[in-house]
Amino acid sequence: MRKEIIINSTANENRIAILEDGRLAELFVDIPGKERNVGDIYLGRVAKVMPGIRAAFIDIGHEQDAFLHFSDIGSIEEYSTLFEEEATEENGDDEVGDLDSGSDKSQVRTSISDTATHSYEEHEENAEVNSQIVQREVNLQKGQEILVQVIKEPVGKKGVRVRSAISLPGRFLVLIPFDGKIGVSKKITNFREKRRLRRIVRSILPKGFGAIIRTVAEGKSEELLQQDLNELVKIWQGIERSVKTEKAPALIYKDLNTTSSVIRDLFQDTVEHVVVDSKKLYKDIRAYVQWISPDMVDRIELYKDKEPIFDKYGIEKDIETLFSKKVWLKSGGYIYIERTEAMTVIDVNSGRYAAKKDQELNSLRTDLEAAREICRQIRLRDIGGLIIVDFIDLEDERNKKKIYDEVKKEFRKDRAKVTVLPLTEFGLMQITRQRIRQSVPMTFSEPCPTCGGTGIVQSKSTTLNQIERWLRRFKTSEKEFRLELHVNPVLAEYLTRGTLSRLTRLQFKFFMKIKLISDSSVAPDEFRFVSVKQQKDITDLYK
């Protein structure tokens, strides 16, 4: 599979596209005011502990408190899915090295939980760990300071999700303070290379640190691994110094921006080239790659054509489909994507009539094509959480198995953690996908101020009924006979339509003079009444 990274930079945003065989597979966006939070480290303060949901809310200085589940206190089981989904810490000898002597998992957890107020050396001498670990993990106290790292971006009205187990991703290694394990990416398949890398990392790691060896470390020299490790240790030492001087809530460490992190994490040997249309960004990326992988510098290109870079590579057309609920298939069928707060629902439609004798075969072909496009759209839109797919009904169980296998195969390209269940008897497939950040369409958009994101507004007749009820309440308590009614131009046209208009009927019914004001600033399903006598808005008084 041919992979390329195309970067479009403007004064307002950087857009990074990952192409696979010439088609857009992933899209990342850097927008001022919408900086990424994943990887950032905060010195927070426990704002609320809720044992009922086994979680705590941590004040980190954001508008919404961060969410810390008890399972994320000191746990290291998800490091590989946070910073590089391909890394692993499985228990087999092929994947994880031995624990350093004197290291204890319970000691690790306590150390990480209390890093905000104590150094590692102090915890190394702590002899009361085993009897107190459960209480220290779960029984957080309100007002307690705690060092946490963001693992999921805010979604909707939900704040960021954090964990107290800290890890720092580099180019070749992920450094894990207070842990003695050495994990190796399971995508490094050569046993001798795994053993060589593990031996090198074990010999250079400072006491009390663990690490995950990333895929891009394969074949790299000890010198490069040492350079990467030195940088990560410096960052951690800076974090320790900041913890001692800062007061919660405070940002202790800011991870790389999206553009830099994409180059760090995704620019691997499988990437043929990186094309950038900004001279400054080109120089920055080139300097970084010159330091970490000098042999890959020649793959970085500066785009100089007059045609916009995303137009040149056909990316702009693919981005336009991100905002469409309907995505057409080459066969003439289509998929329909509907997002809700709880889940995403995807419906597959044939789009045309198929003869009954060929129905099963046609349905299978459409479902297989839809399966490939659905997996691509999920990755492209970065849809997370629960996803339900309604495929076209198939009668043959073997054909259902083909659809399941196709989806599983396509999701092997996905870096996020994905779980796929077989088709049910009703043709439904359940997919769960790791959610770390907001979906790409949400990055580019915001809820409609008129419909609030629902896509529908109240009917004009319903709004008219509300106006009539308002007037009835008004007349029962007031003796005024002149009002101004401010409505949207669409509703104004509805009220004045016809010889005996709806507005005229209202005036006769309530024996009032109502002056209609067409106001585009008023939502189509809203209205405002102004008292002519008092010269003020009185709408809320009688709602």
Tell me the number of strands.
Answer: 25
Q: Mean pLDDT, rounded to whole units?
A: 80
- Structural class, from secondary structure content? alpha+beta
The structural domain count equals 4
Low-pLDDT stretches: 75-136
User: Distance between the terminal alpha carbons, to the nearest Å?
Assistant: 62 Å
Global Rg = 29 Å
Largest sheet: 6 strands, antiparallel
The portion of residues forming beta strands comes to: 15-25%
Helical residue percent band: 25-40%
Q: What is the overall shape? A: globular
Total helices: the number is 16
Polypeptide structure, described:
With 543 residues, the protein is an alpha+beta fold. It has 4 domains: 3-31 and 263-316, eRF1 domain 2 (Nucleotidyltransferase, domain 5); 44-250, no CATH class; 324-443, Aminopeptidase (3-Layer(aba) Sandwich); 460-542, Hypothetical Protein Ychn, Chain: A. It contains 16 helices and 25 strands. The strands form 5 sheets. Strands 4, 5, 6, 7, 8 and 13 form a 6-stranded antiparallel sheet that branches. A 6-stranded mixed sheet has the order 16-17-18-19-21-20, with helices on one face. Helix 8 links the parallel strand 14 (271-276) and strand 15 (300-302). Helix 2 crosses helix 4, helix 5 (191-204) crosses helix 6 and helix 11 runs parallel beside helix 12 (397-411). The N and C termini lie far apart (62 Å). Mean pLDDT is 80; it is low at 75-136.
